[in-house]
Design goal:
It is found in: Cell membrane. InterPro entries: Chr_Tranpt_l_chain, Chromate_transpt. Belongs to the chromate ion transporter (CHR) (TC 2.A.51) family. By secondary structure, the protein is mostly helical. About 75% of the residues lie in helices and about 0% in strands.
């Protein structure tokens, strides 16, 4: 892929049209991005970097690296960051809404009408898991060719993949990224990188960023106090619910799957949701596209109906939104510092390695079971890499292929 082509900069469009464009693109991703947080990064890469060129390889990798460090759903934060770059705060909101609403709506419907439905054995779902394999493989291929070139960076990527596979832990991944940054600072801080001067627009002031950061930490402190003052019953249930899900969203490192034990403690131990309903909903969220954090939408319905779903969904994503909007303007300046550029070269190589490890486990190990599965993955990979077909068509082909494999195997 030739990343030397000029980026499609967000100019010569009204703010309204930019926002509508961001909403439409992110909604398409929200309806087609199956496979979990790591797979989402692959879908993002194909849509935002390869196809639309809204940002270059280096900017995308830097944004992914930053979001790996921040608490919250990393894939959603990357999408919010891209929306912020493209269309300001309205663009960030549109990117979040578009990516989140499809799965949130589906899970709300499931919670209302379809509890007990078994979707785990559906043939089309197996096909979508195989599609995620091809999407992530394409991301590893494309990012590796740009960010893990040369002996030293390839070595960092390989070691990062090995460590992530041997010790599959979210905190280990953060540790690996930090060590890779130190190594990159040592190896590359004096080197010139032709890709270092990448363009990443952040059209908001640092004052707004400080406001967002103050809100992030302020709500963590104030919400529990308000719950204690006003109590947790009657009409203040919404306040208690908001506090619980906001705190959960603020303390999750490592992506969507890590939210399970935190939410379990919040909603089961308090008696809001039964364990069987909780596990049934967690099974359902694996079957829909979009962020795993929309599990909160399902739980919100069980706790307090549609209003509960709205409160829980906003509360669990709000910390991630405030953090990425608060940090990005400062990050955009820091990443052009020579020392930071050197560290980022190491970090970006490590991100490729971590993505490679995730391609094997859990994506490959939970999806590719037979030779026919591998054949379908190869076909889908070819559709992306060589035939240059859009991701939505590959998703449809994967679902159809899963049904065909199910028929052949039955």
């Amino acid at each position: 892929m030739d990343t030397s082509k000029p980026l499609n900069k967000p100019i010569q469009k009204s703010r309204f049209l930019q926002t509508v464009e961001i909403l439409g693109v992110s909604a398409k991703l929200g309806m087609t991005s199956f496979g979990g947080p790591i797979a989402h990064l692959g879908y993002y890469h194909e849509e935002y970097v390869s196809r639309r060129k809204w940002l270059d390889e280096r900017s995308y990798a830097d944004l992914v690296a930053l979001c790996q460090f921040l608490p919250g759903p990393a894939s959603s934060q990357v999408g919010i960051g891209i929306g912020l770059s493209r269309g300001g705060v309205l663009g960030a909101i549109a990117a979040w809404l578009g990516f989140t609403l499809p799965s949130a709506i589906v899970l709300i419907v499931f919670a209302l009408f379809m509890q007990g439905m078994d979707v785990g054995s559906a043939f089309w779902l197996h096909g979508l898991k195989l599609t995620a394999v091809s999407i992530v493989a394409q991301a590893v291929w494309s990012m590796g060719r740009k960010l893990a070139t040369g002996r030293s960076r390839a070595t960092i990527a390989i070691l990062a993949a090995a460590i992530s596979l041997i010790w599959p832990n979210a905190f280990i991944q953060v540790f690996v990224i930090a060590i890779a940054g130190i190594v990159g600072l040592w190896l590359y801080r004096k080197s010139t990188d032709s890709q270092a001067e990448s363009t990443f627009f952040v059209p908001i002031s640092r004052k707004w960023s400080v406001v967002c950061l103050v809100l992030y930490f302020g709500l963590l402190l104030i919400l529990p106090l308000l719950v204690r003052i006003f109590g947790g019953g009657g009409t203040t249930n919404g306040l208690l619910l908001f506090d619980s899900f906001y705190r959960t969203g603020s303390l999750v490192f490592g992506g969507g799957h890590v939210v399970l034990p935190l939410l379990q403690g919040e909603v089961i131990h308090t008696g809001w949701v039964t364990e069987s309903d909780f596990l049934a909903g967690y099974g359902l969220v694996q079957a829909v596209p979009g962020p795993l954090f929309t599990f909160a939408s399902y739980l919100g319905v069980l706790i307090s109906g549609i209003p509960g779903a709205i409160i829980a969904t906003i509360a669990i994503f709000l910390p991630a939104f405030l953090l990425i909007v608060g940090v990005l303007p400062f990050w955009n300046s820091l990443r052009h510092n020579n020392n930071v550029q050197g560290a980022l070269q190491g970090v970006n190589a490590a991100v490729v390695g971590i993505l490679l490890a995730a391609l094997y486990n859990p994506i490959w190990t939970t999806s590719v079971n037979t030779a026919l599965d591998f054949v379908l993955v190869l076909l889908l990979f070819g559709m992306l890499i060589y035939w240059k077909l859009p991701s939505w068509s590959v998703v449809l082909a994967g679902a159809a292929g899963g049904v065909l494999l199910g028929i052949l195997g039955s």
